[in-house]
Amino acid sequence: LKRVAWLAPAPCRWNSGLPMNIGVLFVPQQEAWVVERMGKFHRILEPGLNFLIPLLDRIRYVQSLKEIVINVPEQSAVTLDNVTLQIDGVLYLRVMDPYKASYGVEDPEYAVTQLAQTTMRSELGKLSLDRVFRERESLNASIVDAINQASDCWGIRCLRYEIKDIHVPPRVKESMQMQVRLSGRE
Asked: Which of 32, 69, 94, 162 has the most CB atoms lying inside 10 A of its own CB?
């Protein structure tokens, strides 16, 4: 049995996951395929029937043009009044320019996620704790604006950013609840 397994050919695997160039290709709707000819950008294949030269042309990138949803991991942020919050969010984005998304940045999703995290920390640092809860919508909008300014050269557009959860330290939460109780008695 060992000898038979040793003689059997190894399974062929395509690690890249990119479509092979067989000359005639059908690009699915909501995708853009970036083609290089002899290692240099040649063109972007649109959805539908496309023709390539098998030995010269290579599909280098496949970009989805659908809206992408990315979870922004929980992180610590310090408000203007020195309260440390744990905050996370959801980012909605779309590839607008397949060329820029392919050649502008190595990993567009990672880059935008990192940008969202740093922008969120920066924006939270400008607000006091009570304003963070009141101005959640404007905070989301300012994060989207900052991301769009930076990600334009990557061919990506941020459509929305939503803060999922804001976790306040237990002692601060207790003092907030006591303040509400006291203001209710007056």
From this structure: 32
Phi, psi dihedral angles at 31 (to 5 degrees): -135, 150
Q: What is the pTM of this model?
A: 0.74
Output the six-digit token pair for 119.
Answer: 């922008």
Q: Is 106 buried (19+), middle (13-18) or exposed (0-12) by CB count in 10 A?
A: exposed
Domains of the chain plus CATH, in order, are 24-64 (no CATH), 67-184 (3.30.479.30)
Report the C-alpha gap between 77 and 86 in whole angstroms. 6
What confidence score (pLDDT) does residue 165 get?
86
Q: What distance in Å separates the CA atoms of residue 16 and residue 36, rounded to the nearest whole number?
A: 15
Looking at the DSSP bridge assignments, the partners of residue 58 are 36
**Cα(172)–Cα(177) distance, integer angstroms:** 9
